[in-house]
Give the backbone structure.
Amino acid sequence: MIPESSIIVERGITMKITKNILVHSEYRLSDENDNHLNPDEGELIYLHGGYGHIFDKLENILEGKKAGDTFKATFAPSEAFGEFDEQLIVQEPLSELPEDVYVGMELDTSDEDSKSTNIYVVTDILNGLATLDANHPLAGLTVTFDGTITELEELTEEGIKEILAHEDHEH
């Protein structure tokens, strides 16, 4: 949460989305068949300005909009959650996994050579093997974001630093 002292309020000025504006929006995420993909979520809050908090294409579309404006953007898999990659599905013996492994469990793995981390989801357990999938759940889908900008906040330098510092601690 950003402290109130980190927010600059300017009365009578129509604020637009530019670098270092904290953007609040309500959105619906759907696939090509208009299936609602985020029924339990729908609020997006991010710091605008190329920080990698949202897809570049969406950030470019939102640039210059103001509170109350609507947006709609469609993304191919390569622009959003990635193509589905069969190589990210592996089977591991249950003896190599935590004793309490269950379908839906997330397991983090690190590759010391490439310094990369993958999050695998256990998708099946059968005959002493667990199937693990590191694809994003929406990988391979063309998705559409359809929403409304609900609020814009201009932050102080301290507020911006706080968001960026908090982000560094989450990764």
Summary: The helical segments are 56-62, 157-170. The radius of gyration is 20 Å.
